[in-house]
Amino acid sequence: MVDDVVSEPLAPARGRGHLGRMTSSPAARAAASGAQKSGTSAPAPAALLAWYDRHRRRLPWRAEPGRQADPYHVFLSEIMLQQTTVKAVGPYFTGFLARWPTVSHLAAAPLEEVLSAWAGLGYYARARNLHACAQAVVARHGGRFPDDEAALLDLPGIGPYTAAAIAAIAFDLKASPVDGNIERVVSRLYRVAEPLPGAKPRIKALAAALTPAERPGDFAQAMMDLGATICTPRSPACSLCPWMEPCDARAAGDAALYPVKAPKGDKPKREGVAFLAVRADGAVLLRTRPDKGLLAKMTEVPSTPWGPKPEAPEGHAPLKARWRALPGAVEHVFTHFALTLKVLRADLGAGTPAPAGHRWVTPDGFDAEALPSVMRKVLAHGGVE
DNA sequence: GAGGCGTGGCG
DNA sequence: TCGCCAAGCCT
């Protein structure tokens, strides 16, 4: 029973929590409303599936209606879509599939090629795990993805969400993936007052209770499409929603307040100095970052360490040269800090050798490098590329 | 379990 | 302009 996982007392809530009273915090308001299932009925999977049959998005990794999706396509797209928009993933998905048409092809590829193909998409641990996962699928399962949620969960880079998504979408098993879309849909349906991330277990249980035995894969994708196109974060189009009737937040008129989230702290700033060495033939001095940590194994322009305070560049330059400060700086925001990078440039003779651990790369070789966006910015700032 | 881990777009 | 956000995972 769905109500088993909802702790708030049952109370009528129509007319309460109206947008007219917006003086308290979302958390306080949501808690004060204290109501559950003020919608007029239980959310029916059939209503959502009927909506999905008419309004489903056509996406490169999706099978035609009524057809089975290729597990490798589902896997590849799900990894790429982690914390990443559909639009950004599109060309990467197409490119990967063209270059590595099966999981066995991907497993056989050198990691460096996978990293350079992934460059620009972000969260590079995903690319390393993607590669490791492909190799594990070949080694453990003979090159076929297991049609079993627990076995999928055991693979590198596949967590609870992705295991459930592949099980449901590729194999039509009764599994309930919960991503940000589904968290939002469910938290509004039931007007979940507890803030994230604490509310995750409850939302997960609610989502599982909603999942039908028939067409669980379409149901999961329908939930995501609903969250992406109707039940959006800012201004949800409730009047177009197939679940308008049973939705508690719609009844209360405060859907945009959900999901409630715990307040987050300020983002710290870091600064550093990058050394852009340019040889007379146009080659730039690059190196590979360490195996672990931020941007692991990716290509970088040499720089001082990035710290809270600007560090003196002396002693960090990769080679002895006449370094000149370029005007301005490169700004880049990572997940957990904002970076300001000043750039020093030096122009060197064509025969200058690369110091140990470094290499000269001409601009026509940049595409073969695993250059993250922040480093592309540095190169562009220095007039290279 | 809280924090590390990218990037680009949008209101 | 800038904080928020997008199909999370790992440690």
UniProtKB/TrEMBL annotation:
Provide the cofactor note recorded for this chain's UniProt entry.
Answer: Binds 1 [4Fe-4S] cluster.
Task: Name the keywords, alphabetized.
Answer: 4Fe-4S, DNA damage, DNA repair, Glycosidase, Hydrolase, Iron, Iron-sulfur, Metal-binding
Cross-referenced Pfam families? EndIII_4Fe-2S (PF10576), HHH (PF00633), HhH-GPD (PF00730), NUDIX_4 (PF14815)
* Keyword Membrane applies: no
Report the EC code(s) recorded for this entry. 3.2.2.31
Q: Which cofactor does it need?
A: [4Fe-4S] cluster
Every copy of the HhH-GPD domain together lies at: 80-229
Instruction: Return the CDD domains for the record.
Output: ENDO3c, NUDIX_DNA_Glycosylase_C-MutY
Annotated family: Belongs to the Nth/MutY family.
Purpose:
Adenine glycosylase active on G-A mispairs. MutY also corrects error-prone DNA synthesis past GO lesions which are due to the oxidatively damaged form of guanine: 7,8-dihydro-8-oxoguanine (8-oxo-dGTP).
Report what the protein is called: Adenine DNA glycosylase
State the organism of origin. Answer: Xanthobacter flavus
